[in-house]
Amino acid sequence: MSSFVTGQIIEARCTRCKDVTGHVVMACLDGMPVKVECRACGSVHKYVAPEAHARPKAEKPVRVKAGHNRVEAVDATVKAEKHLSAPRPTRVEQQNARRAEENEQRWNSLVAGRAAVPAPYSMSGTFAVNSLVDHPVFGTGAVLEILPPDKMDVMFKDGVKRLRCVC
Ligand SMILES: [Zn+2]
After folding, report:
1. What residues pack around ion ligand 1 (CB closer than 5 A)?
2. How far is the CA of 74 from the centre of ligand 1 (A)?
3. pTM listed for this prediction
4. How far, in Å, is the centroid of ligand 1 from the Cα of 124?
5. Measured in angstroms, how far is the CA atom of residue 128 from the centroid of ligand 1?
6. Which DSSP symbol is given to 41?
7. pLDDT tens, 24-79?
8. With b meaning 16 or more CB within 10 Å and e meaning fewer, what string describes 23-58?
9. 20 Cα: distance to centroid of ligand 1 (angstroms)
10. DSSP 133-166
């Protein structure tokens, strides 16, 4: 960030014009202007950054409820605002999201962290319940159930798939 010098002409928010105008820097502190003169109306006032007006929202006070600390309260407020601004998800979308999440948790508990090397999937392969299968499209899955004569249900990251196999 560049530092400012006295006499420099900068853009700043004028407290009298109530607009961003050209200002002459009258005094600086630590490279930041502290006192400026508006070239439009000639008033001398403290420096206000041009964008200062555009971001009062972030400084909005947050009400802290009993039992919550400030971080939680801010978090809850941000979530509430997001919820208000975003279009409400439909019931089906909510159900799908919940199902996907449950599915992933289940997949994680069945597949993730297992030391066993998944066997490459093949329609002519024979698989045991609970063994791991490596499918070229669906990835790694765990065999949930063998369905004679020639099918099995496999839990993949994006859901249970019924695959051909030799039972
Ligand atoms: Zn002014």
Report:
1. 14, 16-17, 38, 40-41
2. 36
3. 0.46
4. 82
5. 80
6. T
7. 999 999 889 999 999 999 999 999 999 865 555 555 666 666 666 777 766 766 66
8. bbbbebeeeebebbbbeeeeeebebbeeeeeeeeee
9. 8
10. EEETTTEEEEEEEEETTTEEEEEETTEEEEEE--
